Amino acid sequence: MTRHLIVVAFATFALAACGSKSPPAAPPTTPPVTDDEPVETPDAMPADHSGHTMAPPDAAPTGPDPTQVKTDLLAAETAAYNNAKPVFEKYCGSCHQKGGKSATAKKMGHFDMTAYPFGGHHVGEMSATVRKVLGIDGSKPTMPKGKPGSVKGDDLALIAAWADAFDASMAGGAHEGMPGHEEHQDGHDHKH
Ligand code: HEC
């Protein structure tokens, strides 16, 4: 027993010793640099590159990591959407979802909820538009078409919660590239 331990200890020591004895990696073969000769700048290198290098990498981030913030915003929005999804499907899917029995290109062009984030030309202002058509913002509801005002109570609250989460993501920059209100207005001539 004791002997065995000693052997193990010795073996470990031998290994460690062996490791430390291994020669350092062969230095890369670099051409000898002579002090008295100016180093020739390769032609491909623009002159203004000498002297200063690329911007130094950012110092350790202060405050919350912006990428993480966006990820959290999107996660919250997706969770809110998943809660509201059955409501959207029940009341809106027939006209605004691919395969819906009354879905037409025109309706889908306005609002396509086949996949999330939604499509259609309202995408960047989706929350405001949905609030409006459902009367959440105080407007007279216009959707679901034919039965405006039929989404209410808990169902309406789920959609309102999603709209808030969507706005938070938008404000936090988590929907970069999604056309916002300004771009949408620009050169846009659709008629309701
Ligand atoms: C019976 C079919 C039908 C149903 C159901 C329906 N929509 Fe629509 N939706 C339309 C049509 C048609 C339009 C095109 C504009 C119009 O004719 O008023 C439209 C347009 C829209 C628009 C764009 C509105 C605008 O001002 O441009 C939004 C947003 C929208 N619908 C959301 C919804 C939501 C949310 C639901 C579910 C609560 C829903 N719709 C249910 C048919 C429907």
Largest sheet, in brief, is:
none
Q: Mean pLDDT across all residues, rounded?
A: 76
Task: Using the alpha-carbon principal axes, give the shape.
Answer: elongated
Number of strands: 0
Bound molecules: heme C
Radius of gyration: 32 Å
Regions with pLDDT < 50 over 5+ consecutive residues?
A: 5-22, 181-192
Number of H/I helices: 6
Name the assembly state: single chain
Helix amount: 40-55%
| Termini gap | 89 Å
Beta-strand residue percentage: under 5%
Structural class: mainly alpha
Strand/helix succession: HHHHHH
Question: Would you give an account of this structure?
Answer:
- This protein is an all-alpha fold and 192 residues long.
- It has a domain at 66-92 and 123-185.
- Helix content is 47%, strand content 0%.
- The protein has six helices and no strands.
- Helix 2 crosses helix 5 and helix 4 (126-134) runs antiparallel to helix 5 (153-171).
- The model is unreliable at 5-22 and 181-192 (pLDDT under 50).
- Heme C is lined by residues 91-92, 94-96, 102, 107, 110-111, 122, 129-130, 133-134, 143-146, 151, 192.
Search tags:
binds heme C; 192 residues; mainly alpha; elongated
